[in-house]
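2024-03-11 09:14:02 INFO queue: dequeued item ATP-dependent RNA helicase, len=565
2024-03-11 09:14:02 INFO validating residues
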Amino acid sequence: MAAQSAIHTSASLQAANAPTFASMEGQLDPALLRGLKEMKFDFMTPVQEQVLQRLPSMGSDCLVQAKTGTGKTIAFLIPAIQNILQYSTRKGQVSILVLSPTRELAVQIADEAKLLVSKFKRPIEVHTAVGGTTKESALSKFKLGDPKILVATPGRLNDYLSEGNVRAKFDDMKTLILDEADRMLDAGFLPAILQILHALPPKSGPKGQWQGMCFSATVPPKMEQVFAHILSKDHVAVSTIDKSEPPTLAKVPQFSVLIAKVEQTFTALYSILEEEIKATEGVPKIIVFGTTAKLVALYAKIYDRQLGLPVFELHSRLTQTARTRATAAFKETKTGIMFASDVIGRGMDFPDVSLVLQVGLPADADAYTHRVGRTARAGKDGKAILLLTEAESFYLKANRQFPIQPYPHSDTVVNDASATIVNDVLQTIEPEVKQKAYSAYLGFMKVATNKMRMTPEQLVGMANVFAVDGMGCEEVPPMEKSTISKMGLKGVRGINYATKSNPTPAQRGPASFAKATQAPPKGRNGPRAAKSSEKQFPSSNSMLARPRQQGRHRGRGGNGEAEAW
Ligand code: ADP
Ligand code: MG
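2024-03-11 09:14:37 INFO prediction written
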């Protein structure tokens, strides 16, 4: 059964006349070919075919662009591994270094590499160096072992490289690979990458040249300069994407739902999930992407038991143990809903995701492409939905390259039945969780103020409606002065400043919540509720009026996530 489904997968992922890996006998080491056979990979995907057949040698530098879920990992691992086999490397020396933007992706790449080298008689050790784990145990294994392949995230690797004896283990490095290369070289990561490069042997040194490989589904124009840090001038550029086609997978139907008001978000999300679960033939396996960690945490709490599917949660505010557990469980499960931030927006390979649902603005155009790419991987089917408010609809106009259609059930996603269910749950959720979600929302949306043609006052008004009418907060949640300043919202009307006598829910503690739940406010989240809010705050619709103030550049943490407040 397993073998059959693997054959089916291969058949639909590859072109009709795809060459087999077996046809590379003589060019690829027999142990590599046995590893591929063991993984049930018989035919090359187009990017694997291009890389293996277009590179002048297995040690050539390359910049490779291919769509999400088309097998780029194997496409960089095979040449890099084949390349190092010609050298007699010293024990304890790293030969291949792979850099990844997130811990989860680093572990996934290492797992794939381990399978690929599993048939070598003399074991090729694959190590990881990622944050969130105790450095000491992985580092001592790394120091004592023979880590021919190291997959790392930049932060932890820089930690490692601060020790001279660790740095020396990279003296013979033969290949440096940047997966999600455009992300690794963007403003958020570039300083860390430059620091790493500074500690590594020079690109062309006394020991020869190391091979540079950059892979991604998205390669924004004007990146030549940064690629020059990794790639030689005569590198081979490979792309399996036609410039005239949309950047997302053609086989993924993509829809948008526009809701009038931000406070309808939770109701609409509930209705869409319910509809999609009902409509799924087979088993629904859904990823819901939210804009920030704190909003994702709130979604996970709201929809935990209502939809009859197991719920998973993954974002930067969880412990690494919880992140690792959620990743493994969602890879394993046949069905369920994963609520996630951009921590898993790129690269992650969860088998058989049937739907990707994005709530709120993706960080940019490429974020949309990568998130959609979590479905329809390895030739499978998938579907994508983007839920936006009218105020956020500029995103669709600014990104017409995506084949996004209006969602057929748009008119009915805000309804009383869903609103009632959602409101009941919201009353059971701690004010602290809501306050954090409110603050996160405000921080995230601040950067889009200009694009939404809003004034800061209108933005705060919209966030306040979201908190009071959407989340069912008793009042506009108080925020600490320092947070407000960091967001650049000091002095903006509508903000509730926390003081000693007006503490935030976190400062107040859980006792106040027990009291609040005895007489919960009712029915504020549905279509009826929207009216009452308009009296207190400007509605999101009325906010489309005046263009104002340039938004701040959106900073991102090393987690691939938009900065969470
Ligand atoms: P990308 O990096 O392009 O997004 P991945 O390398 O994560 O894609 O691969 C996507 C999926 O396809 C993975 O589950 C991987 O195991 C599978 N895969 C890769 N190469 C092949 C192949 N030649 N035949 C069948 N499945 C493959
Ligand atoms: Mg990948």
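2024-03-11 09:14:37 INFO annotate: The pocket of magnesium ion (ligand 2) is lined by residues 72-73, 179, 347 (CB under 6 Å).
2024-03-11 09:14:38 INFO item closed
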